[in-house]
Every structure is written in C-alpha cells, then in structure tokens.
Amino acid sequence: MGSYRKHWLALIAVLIVTFSMLGYYGREVYRQAPPIPDRVATAGGEVLYTQESILDGQTAWQSVGGMQLGSIWGHGAYQAPDWTADWLHRELTAWLEVAAEREQGKPFAQLDAAAQAVLRDRLKTEYRSNTFDAATGTATVSDLRAEAIARTARYYDELFSDAPALQKSREHFAMKENTLPSAERRAQMAGFFFWTAWAAATERPADVGGSGATYTNNWPHEPLIGNQPTGENLVWSIMSVVVMMAGVGFLVWGWSFLRKQEEDDPTPPVHDPLSRVPLTPSQRALGKYLFLVVALFTTQVFLGGFTAHYTVEGQQFYGVDVSQWFPYALVRTWHIQSALFWIATGFLAAGLFLAPLINGGKDPKYQKLGVDILFWALVVVCVGSFIGNYFAIAQVLPPEWNFWLGHQGYEYVDLGRLWQIGKFAGIVFWLVLMARGIFPALLAPSGQDKNLLALLTCSVVCIGLFYGSGLFYGERTHLSVMEYWRWWVVHLWVEGFFEVFATTALAFIFSTLGLVSYRMATAASLASASLFMLGGVPGTFHHLYFAGTTTPVMAVGASFSALEVVPLVVLGHEAWEHWRLQHRTPWMAHLKWPLMCFVAVAFWNMLGAGVFGFMINPPISLYYLQGLNTTPVHAHAALFGVYGFLALGFTLMVLRYVRPQLVFSESLMKTGFWWLNAGLALMMFTSLLPIGLFQFHASVSEGLWYARSEAFLQQPFLQTLRWVRTFGDVVFIVGALCVSWQVVRGLFGTPAAAAPAEALLVKGM
Predict the structure, then answer these.
(1) How far apart are alpha carbons 114 and 223 in whole angstroms?
(2) Record's Gene Ontology CC terms (predicted)?
(3) pLDDT score recorded for residue 208
C-alpha cells in the first residue's frame, strides 16, 4: 500500500460496509417479498388462481417479451401500459360497476354522489384489506371481486389475441396481432397480472413490516383505493436531498483543504511511448473487435430509430405492416441487447490491448489464440441470443425452452439463460486473458509503484465475476427476488465496476503516456473508486422502492443513491483535464478524438447520470415518475452518453495504436462527434423529456394508469412530440455512421496521411 495506505483502507472499509448492507437488506428482500398464494379463492371455495398458474403466467409474460412490452411494477417499456397499474384500475372500476348493477340496478356513473361515495369506501376497504392466510396459503376474495377479476381477465384475453374489437388498442400499444396465441397461456398471464396488482393494492401485515402501506409501498398512485405516497416516502425523499447536499459540501471542503498540493505536470516525452512499443500478435488481432463494436453500434442505432417509429405507427413502418415479423417487443429487445454487446466489446478490447503492455510489451503464450477464441465466442452468443429472441416472441419455441434459449423477459438481461451463461463464460475467459498479462507484472519483485496496477486488477476481476449475479434467479423466481439480482447486473456491474475500470484504465494509459504523474493518477483513481462504491453499491436499492420491499430498503436506497451524485460535481474539472491533454505535446493531436469522447463522457455523466438521474431517484419523484418517459431520458443520457462514449473512446484509442499509420479524418470525426451529441440532446429535449413531463402531471393528477393509457398517449400533441423525435434520431444516425465509417476506413482503408516516423507500420486483423 505504501503512501496510499489511507486510500486503500478507505476503499476497503467502503466495500465492507456497503456490501454488508447490500447483503443484509437483500436477505430482507427474500424474507419480506409479497406472498404468492397457494390459492386465490372465493369465500365459497371457488379457486380462481393457484401459485402454479400464477408462475405459469409469469413465464407466459416472459415469452411475449416481458418488460419489452409494457411494464410490471414500473419496470420495462413505455408504449404499452404498465400492466400492474392498468389491471388494478380496470379491476377497481369493474368492481364498482358490478356492485352498482347488483345492488342498485344501474351503472355506477348514474348513481348519486352519496351512493358512489359508499361504494368507493367499500372498494377501498375490500382491496386494501389483507385476506391472505399464511397457515393455509389462501387469499380469499369476495364474489363481487371475483366477477370484477373475470371481467378484467376477459379484456386481457382479447387484447393479447387477435380479437377485432381491440385491434386499435393493440396498434396504439405497438403490439402485434395474436401476441400470445394460446388461450390457456393468456388466462395464466392474466393471473400473473392479477397477482402483481393484488400486491400493489393489499396492505402488508403489521407483523411483517407493515405500516399501513401495500406490499409495493402504495405504488402505483391510484386514488380509488387511497394509494398515495407514504409518510416514509416523503421523509426519505427529503433526507436524500439533505444527504446529497451534505455530500457535495464535504466533497468541496475535502477538495479544498485535504487535497495535497498538486504536482507539476510531468514533462511529456518527445515521442508517443506506446507507438515505440512493437505491437504483439494479440494486439494486432484486436481489429476485428473494433469492427464488431461499430457493426453492433450501427445496428443498434437503426434499431433505435425503428423502435421509436413504432411509438407513432404502432404496427407499421411508414405504412408497411412489419409487426408480424419484427414487432416492437423484438426490436426493442435487440436495440438494448446490441447496445450492451457493443459497449462491453469496446471495454474488452481496451483491456486486451493493455494486457501485453502491462506484461512488458509481450504476449503470454497462446494469447492471440485466446483473443481469437473469445471474439468468435462473442459472435456466437450475440447471434444466438438474437435468433432466440426472435423465435421466442414469434411463439415458435416450446414454452419450456423459452427461458433457456429464447427470452428471459427481463430488461437488460433479455437473452436466454443459455446465452447468458455463454456471455458469463466469455467474460470469465477475458478475465483469464487479462490475468495472464497482469499478474506476472503485479507479482514481479521490483521497486516500482504497483498500486494503480493493483486497482486495475481488482476492477478486472470484479467485471469478470460480478456478471454472474444474473444467474442467481431462475425462470420462476419471485419477481421481487429477481429484481434484486437483476439490478446487481444492470446497476452494480455496469454503473459500479465498469466505472472503476474505465477510470483506472484511463489513468493507467495517461500515466504511461507520461502526461500525468503516476502518483496523482493512482491517488485520484483510488479516491474515485471509494466515492463510486460508497453511493453505487447500496444505491442499487433505489431501483427497488416499489418492487415488494419494505421501508428500510427505501431508506438505504434513497440515502446512498443521493451520494452517487456527489463525485459528479467535479466532472467539469475532469473534462477540462482531458481536454487540455491534447495540447500538452504535438503527438497528442493523434489522440484528439478519443480524448473528445472522454470529455463527452464527463459532460453526460454530469447531466445524464447526475441531473436526470437525481430527478427520478428520490422516492417521492420515482413514485410518480417510475415507468414514464422521464426514465429513458436518464437511460439514454447515462447509457450512451457515458458508457457509449467511453466505449467509442476506447475503440478509437485502440484503433490509433493497432493502425499506427492512421490519421483520423477531421471532417468525419467532427461530424460524427458533434452530431452524436446533438442528436442525443435533440431526442431528449424535444421529445422524451416533454412527453415525460406531461405524463408526470397526468400521473400526479389521475394516476399512473392514466399517464400510460392510450386515451392520454394518443392525444395529438403527444403524437406530434413523438414524430418530432425523428429529427433528433436522424441527426444521431448521421453521427453514428460517420464514426463507424472512420473505424472501418481505419481498419481496412488507406490512411489519410502518413503517421510520425517513429510509428510502426503494422497491419493485419
């Protein structure tokens, strides 16, 4: 540890405390998850649903795309309704109609105000009362509610079939005709939707963490039964703001008073040190990784435009009905999965480029063979998962094969379990390839400072292993438990360890280039890692406020996710540091555009992850905003703006060194870089954010069911806002094509100009 002892001890302490909290309250997620009754039955003994039929319904929902077609508990796609909120509201209104017809002989709307008030009061009492008997495993419903359930189930049976009466609704929801052909499976899926709504309406018993709130902490907002923010929600929302302000304040004080005087920048070398190290066979083999990055990037961008167009035409693409072959749920799945694949490939390529450099400029034995095997394994997993997605949503796969070969139904981990295992195996294999280059240097006796290398090693190990947390749930795992582990992948693995790897890898590269001092790079990387992990690890719980968890999960998630904003305060300084590196020495001009990507990362990290992230993070915000278009504002700005630009920056940097003759085309890169940024801003500020804010008002005033309903979303002015997004998408696509063409031309074309004399003339994939 040496002179960095305090930094290491702080990081270790942060990891011990935060992972202890994540584990302890994770156990509470298991213990306090809403029960799935063995039977849902009437007082007369008629069984409506069983635990098995509800879980069968969960698998049926997964097979049609799951979270890629509407959402459950607010998690998923935004065009179709949130099925939990929609089912709940439809069942409640059906109950009022049935009660009015049976008891008054007329529709509910024709009753006088006093009679309506009486029925609403009875409705609230019946639905919020917990009739689940743990001893018998039975949840009892009244005959009145049973009829309301039956009416609601009939609606869903027609919606997911090809019934002509609901064809227009399917078009508005971007659903293909006959989404789920089997009537039996449609009935089972209705049971699953019922259970998610039952948990959202039923108060948690006092002896298992109840405090007058439902299993989902009164989410979604539903005035008919008094679902409104809890007192705890408001308290921890205010506390999250206080914690954020305190964190920012202490960071500024620490930055000002505790930070040691910065060293003068080292004198940069006359020539680029990396260009004077002969390329190894494994480094020369990385060209195909870079091609895969831009091939998937281009595919993902066009799929994004295709998916966005479905929000205005539903089942058509400029008049051509393509939904039967490439429905919304499928192209949205491919859009998200291709993003994860190309971003991950960019990171993997950066790591594989560094491994031989760390190993003294030489490959470990059979390193090139390993790099080649890993590449083709990535291709197989990518292609196989895409084909599996297609056959699953087309309802071609047998139901028992869907989860394993087709579609898991969970956003960001949509790929079938077999392909997920293959991806995990590939990442572990990458870890092995990295370890073969890093460990000899790390363990070699020498007087050199190896602290930065040790931190890089830790981040590589965590990236290699933590993706495996996505294997801790199965096809029929309880939804609350699944959400816990899914966010280990989506939040902790991506937003935590990839962030540390990126920070450390850049620090290692810049210090190796002689542009920043090794000591400052090491200290900054260790301090950044502590800050990222302090908020990032327990901050995982901010995704679980309304996923069947109790108040302590909300308290931890709100408080620590607020701390995720704290390190973003200094990103302006980080952006400036990256910007000025290109002017330190003439040969840095060849790295201008990778550096510009890293500057963009700092900007979008501040805006997308910081501003737009905190906009939806406090419990009171997320209570009304979860499942609205405000979420993809944060997702696009954070996923592409941060990790996308990081992967592109890594790709361009690796390209610069594996093709030493290359000189980036100024016109291509200027267009590509600025149009990507402008397109991203346009799609957010001219479409997604305005739509989300209008939905926000509807969610507060009427309820989530209305904010996601076709009656609201098909209003002409919202349709116009969705059409407006086309302009931003086109700008973004042009930028993506320019950057991709630069990479392809760099790999296969003639260099634009001669490189410096010291550059190595090396070709080959």
Answers:
(1) 18
(2) membrane
(3) 60
Q: What count of other Cβ atoms lies within 10 Å of the Cβ of residue 717?
A: 9
Picking from 164, 199, 228, the residue at the C-terminal end of a domain is: 228
Sign of the torsion formed by the C-alpha atoms of 743, 489, 545 and 20: negative
How confident is the model over 545-555, as pLDDT tens digits? 999 999 999 99
In a domain, 652, yes or no: yes
**Of 448, 483, 514, which residue sits at a domain end?**
448
Between CA 740 and CA 732 the distance in angstroms is 12
402 vs 396: CA distance, rounded Å: 9
Quick check: is 335 in a domain?
A: yes
Q: Around Cβ 113, how many Cβ atoms within 10 Å?
A: 7
Exposure pattern of 718-757 as b/e (b: 16+ CB <10 Å)? beebbebbbebbebbbbbbbbbbbbbebbbeeebbeebee
Q: How far apart are CA 572 and CA 313, in angstroms?
A: 41
Are 216 and 115 members of one domain?
A: yes
SS3 4: helix
Number of structural domains the chain divides into: 3
Q: Which helix (H) or strand (E) holds 49?
A: strand 47-50
What is the mean predicted confidence (pLDDT) over 497-504?
87
Q: CA–CA separation, 728 vs 682, rounded Å?
A: 5
**What domain range is 706 assigned to?**
615-752
Residues 166 and 296 in one domain: no
Residues 741 and 646 in one domain: yes
